[in-house]
Amino acid sequence: MSFASTDVRIWLDIFSVYPTAFGVPAGLSPATVAEMRSVAETPVRQMLSALDDRTRGGFVVGEALTIADFLTFSYVTLAELVAFDIGAWPSMAAWLQRMKALPAYGSTYAAFQGLLSARTQRIAG
């Protein structure tokens, strides 16, 4: 699987994150969503392994921050929405922390952090 594949967003967002975070879409049965997750599992893990390999150099395409890091970050942070454990990919986890340490992270992702907080409170409550 090519890391640059446009299928990554489909596998990660539609098949994995959205049904878990926002519930079963209208017209789909829970069994269909379970099947979608099953189909998505291998490609998502392959994508995360490719990203882990790529971020060993510091960032997605080497030692310098590029637009590729910002685009990839927007996808990978969705894993937090469903409490997906990225511990199996330590280079990617370290890269994620480097991205979050950038000065604009707090203001740029404030709404997303609010969504995470609200979802966590709803699940706990």
Automatic annotation (TrEMBL):
Against PROSITE patterns, the record matches this protein to: GST_CTER (PS50405)
Q: Which domain of life is it from?
A: Bacteria
What InterPro entries does the record point to? Glutathione-S-Trfase_C-like, Glutathione-S-Trfase_C_sf, GST_C
The record's SUPFAM superfamilies line, in alphabetical order, gives: GST C-terminal domain-like
- Where is the GST C-terminal domain positioned along the sequence? 1-125
According to UniProt, the name of this protein is GST C-terminal domain-containing protein
Q: From which lineage does this chain's organism come?
A: Bacteria, Pseudomonadati, Pseudomonadota, Alphaproteobacteria, Sphingomonadales
